[in-house]
Design brief:
single chain, Rossmann fold, 6-stranded mixed beta sheet
Length: 617
């Protein structure tokens, strides 16, 4: 049945046979026994048996179309198997969030979230307050559902689910339409939602950072089976590599990609290396001969050769729409070979920033300067360039391209590149208009890369792409020798393929020497509001005299100018490093030291900028 308030799939089971009451010492919640599911053209599950116990936090991964969503529907009772059975513990409260929008357009946001409960009743529930502040604080509760955007509707649907009391929660792509702050909040909420060793979570997602944060078990759905792995995504990668190696797998390409992914997990951000629940010695042995993900110096030299020193400069640029400022006083000199991630809340201006760079948005003030050799390509969210190809077969599209292209120093055909992105030879006869969202996204990426740009803009490139294809895409971009700018809410992707991150906060572009963690701290500070007049009085800075305010404003302006100059010096230092003879190790080390000193200076100045901003208000 469905909850009449939210339209969410809800199950309250009468209970399984006694044999399913427990599995060992851990209480059993639900399970599947010899489940078979098949369609005329696909075997989805072939005699699958599995169980979900108290305390399980299960991430479900696999290729698009292999049955991840079907598995959720089977386990929650929304779909019946063709053979076998699904069992639930007596009285179990199960709720499922599907990818479909099930909200009633005629209801208000408030009624959808809390029904007809009086405010004093729901406002006293700490869970409802937490969910409301985490997901829907910016949405008018008196608005009708029909007036909301797609992203707002998704957040309302998720919030309505999380406000309820459930033993098992099943989530299908819950991070869709959430920004980085929302994804971080959701991970924290799910980690502390139930006491230890109670409750159950099933989540299908391609967000690998999110998987590592919430899952203690990973199920891989493939070839009609469900294969369990201990731990989150990082642990799953190690075990999958070991599985392929021990079985002398014929999937050599796949194995090499995963070994490279494992190398990233071990060599990436320091905080990540402490999370995976696997044997560090085994991981080190597996990646002993894996080269670094990319040679940053060599790629910078190649990019400089292709682009020259002048790429794209945004000079004191401001943009507003309908009188509302979106971007303010943006000063950014983009250098050759830079790999930059852009983060910010939904509506902060990230796509507008890409539009400025691409030339599709005209600034209200300031100017955008393009280097003479820039060849720019954009992978946008709409995929509009595929619309004219809807009736064409993939083979016809490939036939209009050149016979070979240089990728990673080797000549490859478009067909080989498409196979690398997950297309089989049998799919070449498919029409572009009949492709799934993930397949369209991969074809779009291939056509974008084969246009041979030297500046590449990616706007939410992970949409509709499963974890295997994300890995393949990242591997392809590792060796791409140009300037790369990525807008994404996928934290894992940003940390994986970019070397620096910027944030849009209050319309201003800010460098993030501390990466995504620094952004989350800054975003939290910028959105903090006093909870009461008393709290406001306690947190407000002491009133400034006129002279003190002028002095603070003057220093703030000075810090702004210093940060702009440092940005120029850092860009210049990157160029010097790229052009330096790499055999001169002493000179390279000295340039690197100077670069790190400049970045440390930026960090100190940004801290002072925040302090002064709080004082000036």
């Amino acid at each position: 049945m469905r909850d009449p308030t939210t339209g969410l799939a809800v199950r309250s089971a009468r209970g399984p046979p006694p044999s399913f009451a427990t599995v060992g010492p851990v209480a059993h919640l639900l399970g599947a026994e010899a489940v078979h599911l098949a369609y005329p053209n696909q075997l989805v599950f072939d005699s699958v048996t599995l169980g979900v116990n108290e305390g399980a936090r299960i991430g479900i991964v696999g290729r698009n179309g292999d049955g991840k969503s079907s598995l959720l529907r089977l386990l929650t009772g929304d779909q019946q198997p063709h053979a076998g059975r699904v069992t639930h513990r007596s009285g179990l409260r199960v709720v499922a969030l599907s990818q479909a929008d099930t909200l009633d357009n005629d209801h208000t946001v408030g009624w959808t979230l809390v029904g007809d409960q009086p405010e004093h009743q729901w406002a006293g529930d700490p869970r409802i307050r937490d969910v409301a502040s985490g997901l829907v604080a910016d949405i008018d509760w008196d608005a009708t559902i029909s007036t909301l955007s797609g992203g707002q509707r998704r957040r309302v649907q998720l919030a309505a689910l999380l406000m309820g009391e459930w033993d098992v929660i099943a989530l299908d792509e819950p991070t869709n339409h959430l920004d980085i702050e929302g994804i971080t909040w959701l991970a924290e909420h799910l980690r502390r939602r139930w006491p230890a060793n109670t409750g159950g979570l099933l989540v299908v997602t391609h967000d690998r950072w999110f998987l590592d944060e919430v899952a203690n078990t990973t199920w891989e759905v493939h070839d009609g089976i469900v294969e369990p792995f201990e731990g989150g995504y990082a642990a799953y990668v190690l075990q999958r590599v070991e599985r392929d190696r021990q079985a002398a797998s014929t999937e050599a390409k796949r194995q090499n990609l995963m070994r490279k992914e494992l190398a990233w997990l071990r060599r990436g951000p320091p905080a990540r290396t402490s999370k995976p629940k696997f044997r560090i010695d085994a991981a080190n042995q597996l990646i002993a001969d894996v080269p670094p993900l990319r040679n940053a110096v060599e790629l910078a030299k190649l990019a400089t050769a292709r682009l020259g020193k002048d790429v794209i400069d945004l000079l004191d640029v401001s943009v507003s729409f309908d009188g509302r400022p979106v971007l303010r006083d943006v000063e950014w000199r983009i250098g050759p070979g830079e790999r930059t991630g852009i983060v910010g809340a939904n509506g902060a201006g990230k796509s507008t920033l890409l539009g400025l760079i691409a030339g599709t948005v005209t600034p209200d003030s300031g100017r955008v300067k393009h280097g003479k050799t820039v060849r720019l390509a954009v992978l946008d969210q709409q995929g509009g360039e595929l619309a004219s190809l809807a009736e064409d077969r993939i083979a016809d599209v490939l036939g209009r391209l050149r016979g070979d292209y240089e990728v990673e120093g080797r000549q490859v055909t478009p067909t080989q590149l498409l196979e690398r992105l997950g297309f089989g030879a049998g799919q070449l006869s498919a029409r572009v208009g009949d492709l799934s969202g993930g397949q369209r996204r991969r074809l779009q990426l291939m056509l974008t890369l084969l246009s041979e740009p030297n500046v590449l803009l990616l706007d939410e490139p992970t949409n509709d792409v499963d974890t295997d294809m994300l890995t393949a895409t990242e591997d392809l971009l590792d060796s791409w020798p140009g300037t790369l700018i990525v807008v994404s809410h996928d934290r894992y992707l940003l940390e994986r393929i970019t070397d620096q991150q910027y944030a849009i906060l209050d319309g201003r572009l800010r460098h993030l020497p501390g990466g995504i963690d620094e952004y989350l701290r800054l975003a939290a500070r910028s959105t903090e509001v006093p909870k009461s007049p008393a709290a406001s009085t306690a947190t407000e800075p002491q009133a400034l005299s006129g002279a003190q305010r002028r002095a603070a404003e003057k220093e703030l302006a000075s810090v702004d100018r210093q940060l702009a100059r440092l940005a120029d010096r850092i860009a210049t230092k990157h160029l010097e490093l790229a052009e330096q003879d790499q055999s001169d190790h002493v000179a390279v080390a000295e340039l690197t030291r100077q670069l790190r000193a400049l970045e440390d200076e930026v960090t100190d100045l940004e801290t002072r900028w925040l302090e002064l901003s709080d004082v000036v208000g």
